[in-house]
Amino acid sequence: MAIIEVKVPQLSESVSEATLLDWHKKEGEPVKRDENLIDIETDKVVLELPAPADGVLVKILRKAKDSVGSGDVIAQIDTEAKAGAAVQKEPPRKEAEKAKPASPAVMPAAQKIAAEKGIDTSKVQGTGRDGRVTKGDVLSQKPAEAAKAPLPQPAPPVNVESVLSGRPEQRVPMSRLRQRVAERLVMAQSTAAILTTFNEVNMAPVMEMRKKYQERFEKEHGTRLGFMSFFVKAAVHALKRFPLVNASIDGSDIVYHGYFDIGVAVGSPRGLVVPILRDADQMSFAEIEKKIGDFGKRAQDGKLGIEELTGGTFSISNGGVFGSMLSTPILNPPQSAILGVHATKERPVVENGQIVIRPMNYLALSYDHRIIDGREAVLFLVSIKDALEDPARLILEI
Questions:
Q1: pLDDT tens across 311-363, in order?
Q2: How confident is the prediction for the chain on average, in pLDDT?
Q3: Residues near 347 by Cβ (< 8 Å), separated by ≥ 6?
Q4: pTM of this prediction?
């Protein structure tokens, strides 16, 4: 027997604990080296824990939903064992007992209502956790038909009738990522003097440039020319002119950053994450588009690394992809400002005394009023507006 311990990998300095999600292997099953055994959720990302060697998973020491720390031993692999080594043999039972189907677990409230209405809960398809019969499941049954009805077919994930019947509730624990997001948002609201200023930008020049060069750009760089690269470039353009917006507070000091690490908010199945474009001022339009596309894909797959979500001097949140017209984004501490981008819509505007239709986008800049005055905030947003309405400035850097 050669036992190898499966340990939680070293977490980042800012992450002290993680939560084990569902195991992908059971005790007694064979595993291959680098095969994912379990996903580990931290405050920022979900990590895969690969098997350190070929063998058999003979012992699981920590179950799903347990909190763990760096270096904790959570399982054991026997590199010399055969499959099934850890599985206990089932004691012999009578054939009739083996053939007897297991009755579904029934919640107390559901059992009480079932007794009152004369409903056989063994013939009710449970939609609760682990197939448990809930109050809503029982309420959706008709007493006269319940005893005669055969076992129903598997129900869809959400039983609409059950949800709308009675007054059901479902308690679901927050994921570690959602807890962390909640903590940071509350911290931002309680520790910073957040103020938001707005402006509007005519996106016609950017849209015309994209239309003119889209085909050649995609052929040359292998990626589409989107709007986000323009917003990132415009933000960097303005940050160079107003370095205080790129700064942060550390105690009683103001820290000026001589680099431009731009966070781009990305939605994922587990919540909002903000991966960082390092040295965005040194990146081309194509590099920005490729990186953002890569962030979006890996966020959906839960493949972003902790180092990619750490740091950042300024953030951009694009609610426009969901159709948002206007919002007041919340700071991403310790950053001092965040740009909110919204949906571009055709709207009537006045130009030279005439009402014309233009594709307009409302921009919102939330900032920490402790170090950024209204003047700097407004001029910063105007600088972004000017750059987008004359995108040649971003190429010529003027």
A1: 899 999 999 888 999 999 999 889 999 999 999 999 999 999 999 999 999 99
A2: 84
A3: 357, 358, 360
A4: 0.66
147-174 residue pLDDT tens: 444 444 444 455 556 656 677 777 888 8
CA–CA gap between residue 217 and residue 212 (Å, rounded) = 9
Q: Which residues are catalytic?
A: 369, 373
> Residue 155: its pLDDT value, please?
44
Could you tell me the maximum CA-CA distance found in the chain, to the nearest angstrom?
92
- Token representation of residue 37: 């055994």
